[in-house]
Amino acid sequence: MTLARRITGSAFTTLRKVLRNGAVRLQFDRLWRLFASPLDTSQSSPTMDDLACLKGLASPSPLATTGSECEGVLSQLEESNTWESFFVSLKQEPLFSALLTLRRNDDDLVHIIHLKQEESLLVIDEKQSIQYMEFMSRESNSVERDRKHQRVAQVISNFVRHWMWKNL
What we know:
alpha+beta
């Protein structure tokens, strides 16, 4: 094999990787916008398939880690069995720029909460315990994503505490 062919082959391989990564990032950005601003009428409504695809690209993680303060607060909320009232309060809170509910089937709902300030999404699947709320960040840097994760866990813990105290 000649040197020119090796260089050409290497260039094509590199170009293919760059194009693939760009396509993945474009898909991620499109899906993120879909969930971060669901009231935008210029785009179609998000679906469960869109959520599954976004989860595949964003690598969600549980919001509350075992033994954390957030886990304790979320378990108290779950024990109170006041989901509907809690979600009504979330919708009214300006801190959460969007609250979207997707229907998997007649009795199975998934709630997506966008925290604009942190560029993060929380996914709550009613089929699972609220303690398994999932966190997704637009951030690709793992150190910054972990910082956002901690801040969002604190914001949610504080909101739940305040809401529970107000509704005693």
